[in-house]
Amino acid sequence: MQHGGTIHRLAATPRTVHTGFFDSTIPPVLTILSGDTVNLSTMMLMDDRLRGGMTVEELLALRQGYADRKVGGQTLTGPIFVTGAEPGDVLEVRIGRLIPVDFGVNYHLPGHMGTGGLPEDFPSGSVKTFRLDRERWETAFAPGITLPLAPFLGVMGVAPRPGERRPAAVPDYFGGNMDNKELRTGTTLFLPVSVAGALFSAGDAHAAQGDGEVNVTAIETALEEAVLQFVVRRDLRLERPQAETPTHWITMGFHPDLDEAAKIALRDAIRFLAEVKGLAADDAYAFASVAVDLRVTQIVDTNKGVHAMIPKHVFT
């Protein structure tokens, strides 16, 4: 995070959230300048109605209302209008402090609903509640199993092209439900802008997640604080999201076919190595093979995800 700009507070309330989709016609709830920082909060899934201790039957009844309306349950804070952002620009989102609430929920749905990586192996649904220890920064999974907290926003995105209404549950060129656990404190996300003001929204907070998010959910939670700084970049051109951590550059691919998602992430990595690091195409391809890690981001969001981790330390 860099100093400068105004700091705004944006609390998640019924007036400042929208659920289920990205659309450029959603009115912004906050207008800021490039360089400003927003300290926002988020709600739990399904308009903050996903709670700890729910039964599978209660979860299914809650979810049915969203299924009937053909929208997902991702409740997003925003949109935020970033003055000066125009189509073709890139919105740089610097991720600062992320503080979750004190509980989280993981669930998978009954197998006949066809969700998750192995629905055929798990005919019955399950709901698991977690107490998040924010002093020790950990949570107990089971006796003898303790997980460190690693919060991030599962959904961050900007409005898609005018006329498009995109489900928040499906990641694509505008961001959305990327479910990339690398997008945590200290990481910078880059999103291509498609409409004036970018119209950024975020939600679907996770307290911890494995690459793949294989049963459909992480430890779903809400954030009391998500400190994000926004910078309009006119010197960059991107087709889809990329990111930078203290140790890596990250390219991302999304596609219903996992192989195609891998190809998209790999081609973007090669393009980055050629355009930014000056490698010839053949050398960039070779470098990707010997030094870049391809990771499965998630396999459950209709458009599956693969991200390529390009190490920084080898460049002197």
Main traits of this protein?
38% strand; six-stranded mixed sheet; 316 residues; single chain; 2 domains; Jelly Rolls; mainly beta; Endonuclease I-creI; globular
Describe the secondary structure blueprint for this structure.
Elements: E1 7-10, E2 17-19, E3 21-23, E4 30-33, E5 37-40, H1 45-48, H2 56-68, E6 75-83, E7 90-100, E8 103-108, E9 126-133, E10 138-142, E11 145-148, E12 152-157, E13 165-167, E14 175-176, E15 188-192, E16 200-206, E17 223-233, E18 242-244, E19 248-255, H3 258-275, H4 281-291, E20 293-298, E21 304-311
Parallel strand pairs: 1-5, 4-6
Antiparallel strand pairs: 2-6, 3-13, 5-17, 6-16, 7-15, 7-17, 8-9, 9-10, 10-11, 12-14, 12-16, 15-18, 18-19, 19-21, 20-21
Describe this structure as you would to a colleague.
- The protein has 316 residues and is mostly beta strands.
- It folds into two domains: 7-237, Sandwich (Jelly Rolls); 247-311, Roll (Endonuclease I-creI).
- The chain is 15% helix and 38% strand.
- The chain has four helices and 21 strands.
- A nine-stranded mixed sheet has the order 1-5-17-7-15-18-19-21-20. Strands 2, 4, 6, 12, 14 and 16 form a six-stranded mixed sheet that branches. A four-stranded antiparallel sheet has the order 8-9-10-11, with no helix packed on it.
- Helix 3 crosses helix 4.
- The radius of gyration is 19 Å and the shape is globular.
